Amino acid sequence: MPRHTREEKMEAFGRFLDVLDALREKCPWDRKQTNESLRPNTIEETYELCDALVRDDVHEICKELGDVLLHIGFYARIGEEKGQFDIADVCDKLSDKLIFRHPHVYHPSQVGAPHPKPLPYGENAEGREFADASTVTQVLENWEQIKLKEKDGNKSVLSGVPASLPSLIKAYRIQDKARNVGFDWEDKQGAWDKVHEELKELEQELAKGDKQHSMDELGDFLFSIINVARFYKLNPDNALEHTNQKFIRRFNYIEQHSIKIGKPLTEMSLEEMDALWNEAKEMEREES
User: Per the confidence metrics, is the pTM higher than 0.70?
Assistant: First the structure.
């Protein structure tokens, strides 16, 4: 697909806003929506986008991005109706924030040396110094320090982690944010040692039959595994979702075979199901 010109992109965005305005004014369903009523749909659309991203389905990614954009525009339209903000405010705040958080791009003299003039966003910007930002790690370290200084920014390092995030993603983000301010293992071995320690403690509590302590230790063990994944730059949520999809494909193969031969899964032996599982596994290897 050919790239569109800047003018074509602006025209397309304007058309989207025109359509959204018309729907809000003329469609009974769109007219009655509120922030509260849209929220569940926004969560669903976001997960549908994530699913398309995992499958790397370009057509679906494009479509689902549009659905997410619709919700962004809808919330901005509701804010405009209430006299609170509009889509221009949303875009301007985002642009201001990105400029402020990237001094190595927009204010290179801020990196490693004081800047004579305050930055256009936030407070106490005058004379701020940042570490070198020639690597991704250094950029992220600066990012966390900058956010703590922003006007209306995070009040603490971990306050930027949404409370409603799924636990697996939240654990990864908590660890990553702590790392950006220096709270981390010195090397991979330290993280691995923690995994072994937590696994041993989990096994001990399970052997005792103490459910509450076992639950606590299971959480500690999972947290430590996520920590190791982070050291190897592996996203645990993506990894688990790939495994989920792999399990679904292979189990569906077993189920389809049971339907084909007219034998319910409940009547198949574990050995039969395991043999079919291995067949599905071998087919995936041949196709890859």
Answer: no
The position carrying tokens 């005792």 is: 208
Bridge partners of 130, per DSSP, are 111
Closest C-alpha among 256, 261, 262 to residue 279: 256
Question: Cα–Cα–Cα angle for 280, 281, 284, nearest 5°?
Answer: 90
Judge whether 177 and 157 are in contact, CB under 8 Å.
Answer: yes
For residue range 9-54, list pLDDT tens digits in order.
999 999 999 999 999 999 999 999 999 999 989 989 998 998 899 8
**Sequential DSSP letters for 241-279:** HHHHHHHHHHHHHHHHHHHHTT--GGGS-HHHHHHHHHH
Calculate what percentage of the chain has a pLDDT beyond 90. 63
Contact in structure between 177 and 161 (CB atoms under 8 Å): yes
